[in-house]
Amino acid sequence: MKKLLLALVALGFCAHAALAATPPAYFVDEAKLPFNELANLPSQREWGVHNGAGYRIEVPQQWNGKLVIWAHGYRGTGLELTVDNHPLRAFLLANGYAWAASSYSRNAYDPAQGAKDSHALTQLFNGRFGRPSRVYITGASMGGHVTGIVAEQWPQSYDGAMPICGVLGDYELFDYFLDHNVAAQTLSGQNKRYPYGDDYLSVTVPATKAALGPAFPFALNAAGQNFKALMQQRSGGVRPLFEQGWLYWNGLVPGDFLFGLGVGNGTLPRQPGVAVQNVDVVYQFDANPALTAAEDAFNVNVQRVTADPQARRRNGLANVTPTTGDLRIPMLSLHTLGDLFVPFHMEQVYARRVAEKGNSARLVQRATRDVGHCSFAPAELVTTFVDLVKWVEAGVKPAGDAVLDPQAVADPAFGCKFTDKTAPRIWDQPGLGILKPAACPVP
Fold first, then answer.
1. Residue 343 near residue 235 (C-beta atoms within 8 A)
2. Are 332 and 162 in contact, with CB atoms under 8 Å apart?
3. Of 28, 58, 111, 398, which is most buried with the most CB atoms under 10 A?
4. Helix (DSSP H) and strand (DSSP E) numbers for the chain
5. Whole-structure pTM value
């Protein structure tokens, strides 16, 4: 996790575009593709390279005829392409499911390529082992974005989708990174203009934090409190675990993480022009839609950024392919409430898009109580997958959380229903007890 976070800070997630005439020389180290059989779970295992992407496939000896595709998350900008085993591998094999996972043929934030390579792997599986009776697409983080794209682009080939901690709001995530930085600049009085330049993290950010409180993020002045409140609204609204997430992502994750996500120039690999914007955002420090004098002043003074049209494509399999809400198969998603890297807001953005398309009956969303990114207990993942299968195969629609109801989201018990309360959490580690939330109420 730490290596991934540091890599993302270095990238700025909105890094300078890689638009060189010669594409990067991505490669798969085929010596790393073989993987061993799990004890007491005999299987047929296959690995190789298909269309430039490494892959792994595993089919249990007693195959139930069903396939589960795994879409991995962001890998950084290195040239080596690597493959994950499915995080539910043991459960899937024990219950008769085959699984397959692709490295994708590119790194960087390229969910379109991830979607195309994952779908190509599904087709490869069909040719090797026969067409499965059911196919499920699952994925985490950027892989959750991939899952959303696959579900919308090829609904005839998949029966159910399970994105976890997913970037289901596509460009809205990058806008959120912009929000964090322009808001901090305005409220701190530093007023550094975006894009920030090479001295941002070394000079501007320390001065910014000092101006927001005597011990940012743990002790804040009035400006710092407004900044915190603004980021709460922009990341999903008032909800349990935001306080803990605020301390974790702004103080305990190394390297000024959220500030580091804004150090680029707003462009994305393989896509020309600035892709981030906030020109359409009305910033608030609370949930009351009526603007206070302080909110009015902030909205007047904050720097506004407008994306270049060619960098924010809204159709086709563009680099950062949007999720449109055109959902034709059941989707059951999972997201932690305290994640401020890929925040809970992503679920709300997607829920609105699905509702606008009239497809809300096909989407169920669940919240769990943790501060980490993709920090799910094994039982939470198993339960989510099992409930998705019951929905697809038996018509039993699972329960979910009302992610678009501010009153429900703000309830102190929100997220308790689908959280494994017996699992170890980040706050159980030495020195992190400050992050421990109030216990879920006894039902």
1. yes
2. yes
3. 111
4. 13, 8
5. 0.95
The three-state secondary structure class of 292 is coil
- Rounded to a whole number, what is the largest CA-CA distance in the chain? 67
Return the closest-CA partner of residue 336 out of 289, 374, 283. Answer: 374
In the prediction, which pLDDT does 111 show?
A: 96
| Residues 279 and 389 occupy one common structural domain | no
Q: How many independent structural domains does the chain possess?
A: 2
- 345 and 280, same structural domain? no
Asked if the model's pLDDT at residue 411 lies above 90, the reply is: yes
Structure tokens at 272: 């020309």
Residue 160 located in a structural domain: yes
List, as one string, the DSSP characters of 397-441.
PPP---TT-HHHHHSTTTT-TTS-TTS--GGGSTT-GGGPPPPPP
Q: With H, G, I as helix, E, B as strand and everything else as coil, classify residue 32.
A: helix
| Alpha helices (H) in 238-359, listed in sequence order | 242-247, 257-260, 293-301, 345-356
Give the pLDDT confidence score for residue 23 in this predicted structure: 67
For residues 108 and 178, what is the distance between their CA atoms, to the nearest angstrom? 19
385: nearest Cα among 130, 142, 152, 163: 163
- pLDDT above 70 covers a percentage of the chain that reads 95
Q: Supply 426's token pair.
A: 């980040």
> pLDDT tens digits for 175-221?
999 999 999 999 999 999 999 999 999 999 999 999 999 999 999 99
Residues 318, 201 share a domain? no
Provide the 8-state DSSP code for 291: P
Packing angle between helix 293-301 and helix 222-234, nearest 10 degrees? 80
Q: What single-letter DSSP state applies at residue 35?
A: -
Would you state the structure tokens that stand for residue 170, as one six-digit string? Answer: 């596509």
Enumerate residues 6+ apart whose C-beta is below 8 A from 424. none
Helix or strand run (H / E) with residue 45: strand 43-50
- C-beta separation of 297 from 284 below 8 A: no
Angle between helices 171-188 and 205-212 (to 10 degrees): 70
pLDDT tens figures, 234-271: 999 999 999 999 999 999 999 999 999 988 889 887 77
In terms of DSSP H, where are the helices of 12-77?
none
* Token output for 329: 């198969």
Domain extent at residue 183? 2-16+171-211+253-311
| Per-residue pLDDT, 318 | 80
Partner residues linked to 43 by β-bridges:
60
Q: End-to-end alpha-carbon separation of the chain, Å?
A: 34
Question: What's the DSSP call for residue 215?
Answer: B
Token readout for 116 is 């195309």
